[in-house]
Amino acid sequence: MGYLLLLLVLGGLAAAAQNGFQAAFRRYSRLPARSGLTGAEAAAWVLRQGGVDGVRIEPARGRFGDHYDPRTRTLRLSPEVLGGRSVAALGVAAHEAGHAIQHAHGYLPLRLRSAAVPTASLGSSLGFPLIFLGLILHSLHLAVFGLVLFAAVVLFQLITLPVEFDASRRAEAALARTGLVAGGEEAEGVRKVLNAAAMTYVVAALTGVVQLLWFAAAVFGGNRR
Prior knowledge:
Mean pLDDT: 93
Helix content: over 70%
Distance between the termini: 20 Å
Low-confidence stretches: none
């Protein structure tokens, strides 16, 4: 019962963060950038300013599917960002270009996050089942193994935070430096959209930490009894 309540609280926080980002994006999607550039054009500008070439820019599948793929050096932007000429579109496009710049310059947290992907993927699929199975079977070793795998997921989420905040910092600086986004309302709009997006990662990391602590208490507390 206690864990279900915890899930409800954490789920509510995640939903609030996601709704906050979507609301900020909708609001500043209605504010055209005076530069008149599309998100794809802005991303290309930011990449050039960062001294990065050879990065492809192509459409992403689905809404809010924007991401940078370091394996293929491809920046994928959702349709409303790729062809959008709004402050929100330019902010998101520049943020993703920031990840490409991080990759090109060997930004350490991004390298650590990339290295953690295989273990985190394994942890996301096996962590919970092994913890639950260990608790049901009263197998401390199995439950602890599940905890270790889930800890890899939480570590990945924590490493993601500096990666995302740094990409947003690079985006805001590049947009201001190139004049693609004017000061005042436009700059404020970019900041609000990117901050709202960052909050979704903060909540995800917080959720992971709380769940890890909860399960650790259940595993080791139950073992003491």
